[in-house]
Design brief:
It is a single chain. By secondary structure, the chain is mainly α. Helices cover 82% and strands 0% of the residues. Pfam families: DUF3149 (PF11346).
């Protein structure tokens, strides 16, 4: 486990890849949330 943590966060390339992965997950979840709220039936 320490090897993977050092590989991901020990150098700038690993840190950038982690930032890209987490940003992509955030953007996808935001788009899914927007799609869910826009496709919901209106209250009235």
């Amino acid at each position: 486990m320490a090897f993977w943590l050092d590989l991901m966060f020990g150098n700038p390339i690993g840190l950038l890849s982690m930032i890209v992965i987490f940003s992509t997950i955030g953007i996808i979840s935001y788009l899914m949330w927007m799609f869910y709220t826009k496709s919901a039936d209106p209250e009235n």
